[in-house]
Fold this protein.
Amino acid sequence: MTLDRRTLLKHAAAAGIGAGASLLGLSVRAAGRPQVIRIGVAQAGIGNPPGFSGSSAAAANGKGWVEEEFKADGIKVEWYFFKGAGPAVNEALASRQLDFAYQGDLPAIVARAAGLKTKLVMASGVRANIYLAVPPDSPIRSVNDLRGKRVAMFKGTNAQLPINLVLEKNGLRERDLRSINLDQATTLAALTTKDIDAAFGNINLLRLRDNNAARIAFSSKGGSPIFTTQAHVLATEEFANNYPDITARVVKAFVKAAQWSSDEQNREALMRLWARAGTPYEHWKEDYEGEPLRVRNNPNFDPFLVARYKDAVEQAYRLKLSRGKFDVDQWIDQRYLKAALKDLKLENYWPVYQPNGKILGA
């Protein structure tokens, strides 16, 4: 799905077009508007047509809201899914193959610290739970028992930072484990065959539990929100600068999806929609039980989320996962989001959370 930069330049030269033109369906851009809007997703696409799950951005994809917004303009919308998650999305962004992307905080931070010019335009898929699974007969009962054990985690994704926070809370560091970098599918297989002692991951670990192939030893559900994963929609600075009106309309389409995904009347429909991408409806229902939809489908960069991103920048640098630190306030561009909220009369629709994760004024 991705091309490296050398290949991109080679093909662009052969085609007689500039390096800024896309090789994923977009030829030389027409004045004032693009021919194609390219959106990358830091998840593998599942189904036909392919889709993903767990966020309002996934609902926008499943419902076709971005496509509908630009149908009358004749502008195509193309979605690209990356099994390699956030790091793979970064490669595509660096090669100028994408205009927007849905990914988690850590990979976006790593890319920004390395000089990739992006802007965060709205939140999507925040406060997602992480889980720790072990074989059913394992002596491991909690995070405290992981020292020296073979523990899988998908490094470079937005789960790595909260996992490290969980470890630190329990007096451990990643170096205290025999940590193994595995993607989601490989993790499920390795845990089933007991080639690893434990695995940190997301809701998909519940599949092994239901098949009696694993036991959940820890979940962030019901605990402090600092132990959850955060994600967003970003735009490249190049696209936003060239097409600010188009960028605003893309964000507005995503905000409409966030509102629909936050409406409790749509809870059943939302989770059925997400289930089309492979994770059972029952697991979404369990994962979200007791939690309002407006918590995790909130598009706002409120004080809580801004604080989480600032902490993530510091943590990534401290753990030597990124090259440096930068100003998060300058990275987040809320102009498009605020315009969409005002236009849709949703300025007060979602609760505002303080840095400690509690609702402002509560």
Summary: The chain has 16 helices and ten strands. Strands lie at 36-41, 76-81, 100-104, 118-123, 131-134, 150-153, 178-181, 198-201, 215-219, 231-236. Residues 244-262 form the longest helix (19 residues).
